[in-house]
Amino acid sequence: MKNPILTSRLIGMNFLEFAVWGAYLTSMGTYLAGAGFAEHIWLFYAIQGVVSIFMPGIMGIVADRWVPAQRLLGFCHLMAGALMVAAGFYGLQSAPAFGGLFALYTLSVAFYMPTLALSNAVAFNALNMAGMDTVRDFPPIRVFGTVGFICTMWVVDLCGFQPTSYQFVVSGGLSLLLGLYAQTLPACPVSSATASRSFAESMGFDAFRLLRERRMALFFLFSMLLGVSLQITNGYANPFITSFQSVTAYADTFGAQHANILISLSQVSETCCILLIPFCLKRFGIKRVMMLAMLAWVLRFGLFGLGNPGDGVWMFVLSCIVYGVAFDFFNISGALFVDENTDRGIRSSAQGLFMIMTNGLGASLGTWAAGQIINHYVYTQPEAMQIAGWRTAWFIFAAYALVVLVLFALFFREKRAK
What is the rounded CA–CA span in Å between residue 130 and residue 298? Predict the structure, then answer.
């Protein structure tokens, strides 16, 4: 391994970066439901998409022009960590107010979401300065981010923190640790060349001219429609599986008692499916790969609707396995398609537009819609009818993904190779 010391330092950064997120992302819904905020679960996930529309762009400008990326990464984590720890201890009160908890959480994720891009910038800069190949050397480093995500999912589960706000304290503590560690990472230069760029260019708005081309406009439209699915299972899979504890036949099953560990199979699948992308893109092309992702989302939701933590747990496991295809074949393949089909001068802006459409607009719209559906079919119903309501909701999400798949197959045309 070339430059093992640098590689180890970047592995540590990526491990902590995603361990911060994994501590609460999949289990927060269970805590919120138990704290009396079940009807507001969607709002906690939607706000991540809202802040993703503008905060990464703003922090990117700051890192380009004034503050080295590793310093800004550390500052953002210190702020996010302090606010998340505050949210955690606030939630430990006997009757926390929704407004106070949501305000602290929102401010925390507003500082956290830009760090996903800043950590990549720090890693790419360090690898380039060391003369290493980012295409070859970064993926093995990034995999440890998913490992960190899985580790904190397990810690929160095994420590019994899923139904409590201690998960926020764990996340905030790790964020504070990374905030300090980031100050020791290799320095990132501030580029004077970016000073001539306009605010609109830095925010990625100049990439909107891509929408003039019908094929690219359709691709971004369907990216937004598929982005609707991104946060639904993050927000609701855990409270759904945990709700089987109220059913005598499933109350003591492993899945009902350890939903986070079961769901972590999704992240394990994600790490494996990344390796399939180069082969599948070359063999099938972007249209078929995206269709596979859409079909995987249909199966992801449908299998949740059909399964249970007892004799039907294999359906939950299969749903977690297909998640790797659903997430990677959409997010990573889509980013590669955008990179290959845009001019060099706006490639970064085009990636920003892709993120806005998927993790910003799409995810925000999706969590809002999912919240309305689940509130109607689940949380407004008597407890005895809630499992049936969950199944109806999952089938609605599966039907939506199927409609998007059919429309994409009919209207999107892949550019023929010359």
Answer: 43
Query: Among 1.10.1200.10, 3.40.190.10, 1.20.1250.20, 3.40.50.150, what is the CATH number of 204-418?
Result: 1.20.1250.20
More confident residue, 196 or 359: 359
- For residue 103, give the H/E element and its range: helix 98-129
Q: Indicate the angle between helix axes 313-340 and 277-306, nearest 10 degrees.
A: 140
- Which homologous superfamily is 1-187 in? MFS general substrate transporter like domains (1.20.1250.20)
Token readout for 214 is 């019908």
pLDDT digits (tens, 9 = 90+) for 276-294: 877 888 888 888 989 999 9
23: helix, strand or coil: coil
Q: Which amino acid is at 184?
A: T
Q: What is the pLDDT of residues 374-418, one digit of tens each?
A: 999 999 999 889 999 999 999 999 999 999 999 999 998 876 544
- The number of angstroms, rounded, from the C-alpha of 55 to the middle of its chain's C-alpha atoms is 16
